[in-house]
TrEMBL record:
Organismal lineage: Bacteria, Bacillati, Actinomycetota, Actinomycetes, Micrococcales
A Pfam entry, by short name: CBU_0592
Coiled coil (UniProt feature): none
InterPro entries per UniProt: CBU_0592-like (IPR058058)
Protein name as it appears in the record: CBU-0592-like domain-containing protein
Keyword Hydrolase in annotation: no
Protein keywords: Membrane, Transmembrane, Transmembrane helix
Species of origin: Pseudarthrobacter phenanthrenivorans (Arthrobacter phenanthrenivorans)
Transmembrane segments: 7-28, 54-73
Residues annotated as domain CBU-0592-like: 6-75
Amino acid sequence: MELMLEIAGWAGAVVILSAFLAVSMGWLKAGKGFQAANLLGACAFIANGAVHEAWPSVVTNVAWLLISATALFRLRAGGLTRKAEASPVQLPGVPDTTGQLAVVEPTRAA
């Protein structure tokens, strides 16, 4: 049983890191797939952390799970999609997954 939970912990790490890499590289939008991967990875980390009595990790991953579950619920209800379409915002340090290119025109001296 302990071996299975150890494997689950490593699998959770692979799932979360793969999802983060895919969103960061622009291969995947931060949508349902990304949130589902985070939710599954957090579950695996919670089980693994509990076996090893790594309580700070367990608490962090419970929060991670709740954030992902809330995001999935809101995506399913359509709440996040409508808000994102209404006012797209590009935050610094967050990759642009819209596929649109920004065109910046130089200012002209008068």
